[in-house]
């Protein structure tokens, strides 16, 4: 990657010549493309001529992931839909039973977009297109003859113990896969990808304090799934530097904004940290106006809970995943939590 100046192009050409001379290999420029961003068309063509390469077109694919200089639309993911259609043709679904088509739908068609959904929050319209391909194959096979769909796709996507067939809901799975990245970021691993994200988006602040405006499409997708992460996490507060006072679940079984909605609606800083509002057992909560009698009683009750809590400034906050017995995040536990309708249907295996 170069800045596009003439000097940087000359330096790159020199490096290429040195590589060819030292290794004895030749670079095939006919198979090489150059991509430019933040430049007009004339500058891109000039750069391609200087490097003796073809001018590539966005979006490009890197390790199977589409990359573009601007936001990717539904058309950038059409290759996934085309793969689904190509997989259907040789199967000749007219010779398969409903059980056989279900197995192929779950094991093959539903797994094709998983890799891409790990990095992008796909548009809802594209999820509907994939559902249409899978639904048509399940009900009518590979034939072009129209057949009625005897049940809605939402019904088929329910878990088997709730009257469905257990077909993956790609839209929900997409959100669960991106939520896993938030869990990894919160663990603060000593890895290159985390250091890169921290330097670009989280300088001197946590993920939940970062901004998504003007960020990459990947980062914006993580912010849209932030509420899912909050649903399943319980914070074990130590120094209070990584836990939001009102929004995170750390004191009781639900966030304080749910336990004390009136106080939360009047607080001056709804995104304050525990470390900001709690010091040595004394709370310093600021409100936008004075409190009435009932509101003062709620504040007294909250303060009594805070007095029973003591911070440990020598340790950092920890997060546990409440939806799994291992206390660690799993995509399966979050997917099950979102798709669960609260009641399991008896003898559901006999429905189909």
Oligomeric status of the shown chains?
single chain
C-alpha Rg (nearest Å): 27 Å
Mean residue pLDDT: 86
Give me the number of helical elements.
16
Q: Biggest sheet: strands side by side, in what order?
A: 1-2
Q: Percent range for helical residues?
A: 40-55%
Question: Which stretches are poorly predicted, pLDDT < 50 over at least 5 residues?
Answer: none
Largest sheet: 2 strands, parallel
Approximate shape: flat
What fraction strand? Answer: 5-15%
Termini Cα gap = 56 Å
Question: Features of this protein?
Answer:
352 residues, mainly alpha, two-stranded parallel ribbon, two-stranded antiparallel sheet, 16 helices, 8 strands, 44% helix, flat
What does this structure look like?
The structure is a single chain. With 352 residues, this protein is mostly helical. It is built from 16 helices and 8 strands. The chain has helices at 6-23, 41-51, 78-88, 98-107, 114-117, 124-140, 153-156, 170-186, 192-201, 217-224, 226-232, 256-259, 261-266, 274-277, 293-307, 331-339, and strands spanning 33-34, 54-55, 60-62, 65-67, 233-236, 278-279, 282-283, 318-321. The strands form 4 sheets. A two-stranded parallel sheet has the order 1-2. A hairpin with a 2-residue loop joins strand 6 (278-279) and strand 7 (282-283). Helix 3 (78-88) runs parallel beside helix 6 (124-140). The termini are far apart. The mean pLDDT is 86.
